[in-house]
Design a protein that fits this description.
Elements (H helix, E strand, L loop, with lengths): L25 E7 L8 E7 L18 H9 L1 E7 L5 H10 L28 H6 L4 E7 L19 E5 L24 H23 L6 E7 L26 H4 E7 L7 E3 L3 E2 L3 H9 L14 H4 L9 E4 L12 E4 L2 E7 L20 E10 L17 H20 L34
Parallel strand pairs: 2-6, 3-8, 3-9, 4-5
Antiparallel strand pairs: 1-2, 1-4, 3-7, 6-7, 10-11, 11-12, 12-13
Length: about 450
């Protein structure tokens, strides 16, 4: 269990104990400052496969999430916040670097336990940006960005002072299959998924209490979101995208629009924002708040300070939706500009099977759309009514021209790095609880 003091540079103090129980559910990034009155500390909470409709504060009728709901009521709740990808590894790479996952080669799909590749050490992460300013950093939970020979690709080699967690998804666990400890099992009206969510929420509550007890609540920005949409393949045990279309693995809203809350008492005014924002924006935002220099590479994120502190609109006006397996030929499958979203390609995903909507299913093939499907997400967040099928007026047609222009400009400057996932597999790299056994991986079974 990680026992890091959250209030100072010296040892001692309260332990971050709650995260010992919640490891499979979340990635927790801690960036802490020791000196009183110095720049803020940061806690970033990333849930796994949690959908837009899974929290009580986002409308779920039976989810028990009192701590997250309290954060939402006392912080800034986003209604239009996006992950950069509808699956795990690429979305995490983009969050940590502020760059679309293609630039770092984290495509197509996700890393396996025996993958040779991972997030390149040449990439500059949030942790490295903050460490340069004297921050102590730690990561707890699911990494899913590569292991490497002798753990050479783990977080401790990417700017983190400490790492306690699992290198990959725990089913190679909200991520299926769910688990809840004895204190929480059977306590939710929502079944096993609800129990696991309730435990995750309880851990968030303990973390917030720890900050309060150490006098850090007013000097720490806590940001919560999810890596991608829900795996509806698992039905009631896979999460909910609420009123949004489809889920994990797709570029529909349910695959990439996520719950998000920024919480900083005394600094962020409680409320709801409909401004556009993304996980890509976290690195530039934290760098600004920490007074840190940005990496000297192409970034795809923006500083969200005007949104967080109510001084202006979001600098992000456009969101590009790349599928799990992107390529330069197809480019982004969809583009959002303001309230409008155009789909140039659509494709189902087995992660989004079992819903009544055939467009979500894994056997629904890649389908080009020329002209694109165009939706007004303010009036039609479920992406049901194509504006171009109902006689779009000149204003809408002008928006479509602007969307196409921005898409072309992005494609011209989007660099695809060498794929780290296509580097292949090596069974010897798979984490093993029976060291030096043979043959791997069958001998690694833990009794």
């Amino acid at each position: 269990m990680l026992t890091a003091r959250v209030g100072g540079a010296s040892p001692g103090g309260s332990a971050m104990g709650p995260w010992g129980r919640g490891l499979p559910w979340a990635l927790v990034l801690l960036a802490l400052r020791g000196a009183a009155g110095a720049r803020p500390s940061f806690v970033l909470l990333l849930a796994d496969d949690l959908g837009f409709g899974d929290l009580g504060s986002y409308g779920h009728p039976s989810s028990a999430t009192p701590s997250l709901d309290r954060m939402a009521s006392r912080g800034l709740r986003f209604t239009d916040f996006y992950s950069s990808s509808p699956v795990c590894s690429p979305s995490r790479a983009a969050l940590l670097t502020g760059r679309f996952q293609m630039r770092s080669g984290v495509y197509p799909g996700v890393f396996s336990p025996d993958s040779r590749g991972g997030l390149p050490l040449s990439e500059v992460t949030i942790a490295e940006v903050l460490k340069a300013e004297g921050y102590a950093t730690a990561m707890v939970g699911k990494w899913h960005l590569g292991l490497g020979i002798n753990g050479s690709l783990l977080p401790i080699h990417q700017g983190f002072d400490h790492f306690l967690g699992v290198p990959y998804s725990h089913d190679q666990h909200t991520h299926y299959p769910q688990f809840a400890s004895q204190e929480y099992a059977g306590q939710s009206r929502r079944g096993p998924f609800g129990d696991a969510l309730l435990e995750f929420d309880g851990s968030v509550g303990q973390l917030l209490q720890t900050l309060q007890e150490n006098g850090l609540a007013n000097t720490t920005l806590v940001f919560f979101t999810s890596d991608n949409g829900p795996s509806t393949l698992r039905m009631a045990r896979g999460g909910s995208s609420g009123l949004l279309k489809c889920g994990k693995g797709t570029t529909y809203e349910g695959g990439m629009r996520e719950p998000a809350v920024a919480y900083w008492p005394g600094h962020i005014t409680p409320g709801v924002t409909h401004e556009l924002a993304s996980t890509l924006d976290i690195l530039p935002t934290l760098a600004t708040l920490a007074g840190a220099a940005l990496p000297k590479v192409a970034l795809d994120g923006y500083d969200l300070s005007p949104v967080l502190f109510g001084s202006g609109k979001s600098p992000r006006q456009t969101m590009f939706f790349y599928p799990p397996s992107p390529d330069p030929l197809h480019g982004p499958f969809a583009v959002r500009l303001g309230k409008y979203k155009a789909h140039y390609f659509t494709q189902g995903s087995f992660h989004s099977d079992t819903t009544p909507d055939q467009a979500c299913h894994g056997l629904t093939p890649l389908t080009p759309h020329l002209p694109p499907l165009l939706f007004d997400l303010e009036s039609d967040p479920a992406e049901n009514y194509d504006l171009l099928q109902s006689g779009a007026g000149p204003e809408v047609l002008q928006v479509l021209k602007e969307i196409k222009l921005r898409k072309v400009l992005l494609e011209q400057q989007m660099g695809f790095g060498e794929s780290q996932i296509r580097k292949g597999r090596d069974p010897a790299l798979q984490p093993c609880c029976v060291p030096n056994c043979t043959p791997k991986p069958s001998c690694c079974y833990c009794s």
